[in-house]
Design brief:
By secondary structure, the protein is of the alpha/beta class. Helix content is 49%, strand content 21%. The protein contains seven helices and five strands; from the N terminus they run E-H-E-H-H-E-H-E-H-H-E-H.
């Protein structure tokens, strides 16, 4: 098939899955996760690309801004919606360019319903995902240890196989240290 996107081998094997769920929030890490997932999906497969609108994060943002004169939660949500629509268009364009079937979905989590990672995992599981893919941000180790992280939650709390794509610089550091350790 001319012009189609053929997966590249991953460590010497070719893995083809038909239902992969990818967390895509517009960050560089999430675009790296989408790129990797596109290499794993079978030609007849489908990518479920999900952005999670966690309304509790807007409440926390408002609480932090209250001491600075406050911010309008409605304005923050409208801006988030605008950015999510742009991300969805980009996801559809990138996957269409490579002839990959993709579904774009925005999942809204109300306060008290659990976190974004939990909502993503449950939605993907109900959809029948064979694999979850998420990018890892360059975050503070202290903050991650204190509050956790989206990919860390997925790896430790879901029964669906999960692939976490490390930040680009970390991947280079791991490859460099691995090469140094294996040098004669």
């Amino acid at each position: 098939m001319s012009g189609s996107f053929y997966p590249k081998p991953w460590k010497g094997c070719l893995t083809m899955l038909t239902r992969i769920a990818v967390a895509v929030d517009g960050s560089d890490a999430s675009w790296a996760a989408l790129d990797f997932a596109m290499h794993l999906i079978a030609p007849e497969g489908t990518l479920l690309c999900v952005d999670v609108k966690d309304l509790m994060s807007f409440d926390l943002e408002l609480a932090a801004e209250a001491y600075e004169g406050g911010g309008a939660t409605d304005d923050s949500i409208k801006e988030w919606d605008k950015q999510a629509a742009h991300i969805g268009k980009r996801v559809k364009a990138v996957t269409a360019e490579h002839h990959i079937n993709a579904i774009w979905h925005i999942l809204t989590v109300e306060p008290g319903q659990g976190g974004a990672a939990r909502a993503f995992a449950q939605y993907a599981d109900k959809w029948g995902a064979e694999l979850l893919v998420a990018g890892q941000h360059h975050g503070s180790k202290f903050i991650e240890d204190l509050f956790g992280s989206f990919p860390k939650w997925l790896v430790s709390h879901t029964g669906v196989p999960t692939l976490v794509i490390p930040p680009a610089n970390d991947a280079i550091e791991v490859a460099s240290s691995s090469a140094a350790n294996n040098a004669p």
